[in-house]
Design goal:
Number of helices: 18
Number of strands: 0
Distance between the termini: 17 Å
Order of helices and strands: HHHHHHHHHHHHHHHHHH
Shape: globular
Largest sheet: none
Strand content: under 5%
Radius of gyration: 23 Å
Number of domains: 2
Helix content: 55-70%
């Protein structure tokens, strides 16, 4: 069931009405309703994996009690059971075939021929997200930041809440569980904010990302025959496609949660206005980057054990982050590129230069220095996105090679104006909208009502394609 489908809109209206009109006097019944709706929502994707989701949830719920034991040896045993459980599920469904084929190639290079057994299974939707919910829960209990939940319904709702189930944001138990456990009352202004975020998210997905996708797909599938300028446009278009697609999903998820009285963590804060790579990662997929920071980078020692250790930890976290996105070398290289881009900032102690401020904070427009920083950062990010989008690492390298040689040999070449210049007509509204909202990613309440009518009209005429969100594959 896609967010960008009429089925989801009907589902959302029905659940909303029952939630506030029928079960509004009982928190327990509200939670049961939302949990049942979440399992139904997930089952519409693949009912075959409902059992896996329920089993994973039940095991982490049980491990939580063991991890909370005052006996640290016993607590560590249950902690490792939680880690093995969640990473084991990921390993089997997402990474087993990758490692099996890589070891087969490795052995073949030294003269040993193997015939590994490959699993013929589909990747369960949302598996990378709900396993990370479970991991963060047992980690927080072990570190004394969270007490085990005694009510299974409450815990299951934390893991399976349908707005965030298949593509995040990746929530923390300390943030979402208290909201699950406390009584929620209807808040008109919160609901209106939610509807506005849903509208803005649908606009970014249905109007911008989906229209850019046809341009991107055409260019990347014919990269060998396109000129250098067209290849550059394809890379830029994908940068905005994936941003519109994923941040649009996050806006819809956050907005939908608001309809039921929940406030989810922010996932995007205008990353393409970042002035360096470090700031970009504080603004892009925030729930994931902060997850890796808190549960991998800091436990490894972070930057407190010298520059050498900090450099090693930085490469680990970026490479693992890339591998989290998919069992393919192209994602690993994508993460490695970002680690290399981050490295100079780390060595020069500039990686925390922009932690609180925003670009042009007290001005309407950026100054020349900020504009140069934004364009430079975006250029590097876009180059890295080529590896993310290409069908393989070799294709990504050839794509970059074609850009360099075809563009440098004929820099005056023109685009197919009718086919590709129109892509900037989709990109420009997203840039302008983000610039207007850049001080607060949830400040849509400031927009005139006519803007919402116009967005609604554009969504309506582009609605109905039901294209899958990019991050559903992870």
């Amino acid at each position: 069931m896609q967010f960008n489908s009429y089925k989801f809109l009907i589902f959302l209206v029905i659940v909303f009405l029952f939630y506030w009109l029928v079960f509004n006097k009982s928190l327990k019944k509200q939670n049961i309703l939302i949990l049942a709706a979440s399992y139904f929502f997930y089952g519409c994707w693949s009912y075959k994996f409902l059992g896996l989701l329920a089993l994973s949830t039940l095991l982490d719920f049980a491990y939580g009690f063991g991890v909370a034991s005052p006996n640290r040896k016993k607590a560590r045993i249950f902690l490792w059971l939680g880690i093995i459980n969640n990473l084991g599920i990921l390993g089997i469904f997402k990474y087993y075939n990758f490692f099996a084929t890589q070891f087969q190639l490795l052995f073949a290079n030294i003269g040993l021929h193997t015939n590994p057994v490959l699993l013929k299974v589909f990747l369960p939707v949302g598996i990378s997200f709900y396993t990370f919910h479970g991991l963060s829960y047992v980690f927080d209990i072990y570190n004394g930041k969270q007490k085990p939940v005694s009510n299974f319904i409450d815990y299951a709702l934390f893991v399976c809440f349908f707005p965030l189930l298949v593509a995040g944001p990746i929530e923390r138990a300390g943030h979402l569980l208290p909201q699950v456990q406390q009584k929620r009352t209807f808040n008109y202004f919160q609901v209106v904010e939610g509807l506005r975020l849903i509208l803005w998210g649908l606009f970014k997905k249905v109007v911008i990302a989906d229209n850019l996708s046809s341009i991107v797909n055409k260019i990347f599938s014919n990269y060998q025959h396109e000129n250098g300028t067209t290849l550059i446009v394809g890379a830029i278009a994908f940068s905005f496609q994936i941003y519109g697609d994923f941040s649009g999903y996050s806006d819809i998820a956050i907005g939908t949660a608001k309809l039921f009285g929940f406030e989810l963590l922010s996932n995007f804060k205008f990353p393409y206005f970042a002035r360096d790579i470090s700031e970009f990662w504080r603004r892009w997929h925030i729930s994931l980057s902060s997850w890796f920071r808190d549960y991998l980078y800091i436990p490894l020692g972070g930057s407190k054990k010298g520059k050498t250790k900090a450099v090693i930890n930085t490469f680990i976290i970026f490479v693992v982050s890339g591998f989290w996105h998919g069992a393919d070398w192209k994602f690993i290289i994508w993460g490695f590129i970002h680690a290399c881009l981050f490295l100079p900032l780390l060595l020069l102690n500039r990686n925390r230069a922009y932690t609180t401020s925003i670009v042009a904070q007290d001005r309407k427009l950026p100054n020349l220095k900020e504009l140069w920083q934004i364009l430079t950062t975006f250029t590097f990010v876009t180059i890295a996105w080529i590896f993310f989008r290409a069908d393989s690492m070799s294709i990504a390298l050839q794509y970059l090679k074609n850009i360099y040689f075809k563009f440098s040999n004929n820099p005056g070449q023109l685009l197919d104006l009718h086919g590709y210049i129109i892509s900037f007509a989709y990109i420009l509204p997203l840039i302008l909208g983000d610039w207007w909202l850049r001080r607060d990613e949830r400040s849509l309440r400031k927009a005139p009502f006519v803007i919402y009518l116009f967005l609604g009209f554009l969504i309506y005429i582009n609605f109905g394609t039901y294209s899958t969100f990019i991050y559903f594959q992870f």
